[in-house]
Amino acid sequence: MTDSWATFGADLHLEPVGQGLRSGLMEALREAVRSGHLAPGTRLPSSRVLAADLGVARNTVADAYAELVAEGWLTARQGSGTRVARRSAPRRTDPAAAPSRPARSGAGYNLKPGSPDLSAFPRTAWLKAARKALTAAPDEAFGYGDPHGRVELRTVLAEYLARARGVYADPERIVICSGFAHGLTLLGRVLLRRGVRDVAVESYGLDVHRDLLTDAGLRTPCLPLDERGSRTGEPAALRGAGAVLLTPAHQFPTGVPLHPDRRAAAVDWARSTGGLILEDDYDGEFRYDRQPVGALQGLDPERVVHLGTASKSLAPGLRLGWMVLPRSLVGEVVAAKGVSDWTSGSPDQLTLAEFIASGAYDRHVRSMRLRYRRRRDQLVAALAERAPGIEVSGIAAGLHAVLELPAGAERSVIQAAAFQGLALDGLARYRHPDAPAARDALVIGYGSPSESAWAGALDALCRVLP
Predict the structure, then answer these.
(1) What is residue 48's predicted lDDT score, i.e. its pLDDT?
(2) DSSP string computed for 389-423
């Protein structure tokens, strides 16, 4: 009898478009049983746990379970929980006469980096903040909006970033945007108008960021990277560049922090050449084994643009980010954004301002830091037991780890994982086209699976490792 329902947590895709939540959940469960993804005897999560994972009322899950028990799909016994009923195999039919069903999309588990645990979004605390913020909001808050962003949010962000990240900020330096990509797009336009032609980027990073700069008309030469971070102390690496994009707190994807000597070298380069440092504060709030590394911007607020978002700390769907700008850049960035704030809604900005001011944001970050640290420790322990030859790095902070593989094994492991319904990314996925191939590795995002799916995802990962 199968006691694990972790695969269930990943395979269930509840999309009740055009139907009620209860009927949508019931059909999703029936389809999981029909397709074999929920085997007979599989124990399902309690109504409380599943309701929390799916973000629905507990009664919705309980009613769906009860009706499926009545229909014979599930069984429920006190002390044994709710399980998939054991059913006789259906009589085979002519394939030509059988109704076709759409193919199931997506992998059973997703361990690609870049997303937090969306099931952990603090719905109750966010709703409380929204009610308070909207009750106090002035009428003009519902107009087209100031392209700087709401002053309420900029004010609390200035205090929070100074306290938590060591950023030198005041509300007049901050411009609200709809995420890092939006901020980078605006900066790309401004840099091009200033006559910049090259923005150096790290040899491993997100191709979407390189593409945004390229689309703005900028070239993106490659900045070498090693175990101490980007090699900012080599003059040849930055020759001709008017700006450099860095992830100094926790380099993505290698996971190394930028060494203090190289932080200083980057600032010295910016001062001596008039260049700008674009600081992506990636994973800056999630550090586990020591105090968080302060923001690079604190070393020279007039030469560093600090970019942060709520995408990892809360959820990417909020589309809320911020730029702390040198004073000389504020007017140009606001002009590039437009005469009105078309990107970030005022109600969400006001809610985030209240969420931070009330202390709810700090409490949520502390809670998630504990959750992600526990997952990181479970990942390391599982690998030590089941794949002792795999070296793990980049785990002092953030929501991902790098798993070293034998030479030539990266592609085959990813293919084997896909066959098992496990979505993975290799390190090569993030390599700059001009950077030399260095090593084979996996970049494992341990933040995104829900609590109910994490154990199954970890087990699936261990099964495909060499």
Answers:
(1) 84
(2) T--EES-SBSSEEEEE--TT-HHHHHHHHHHTTEE
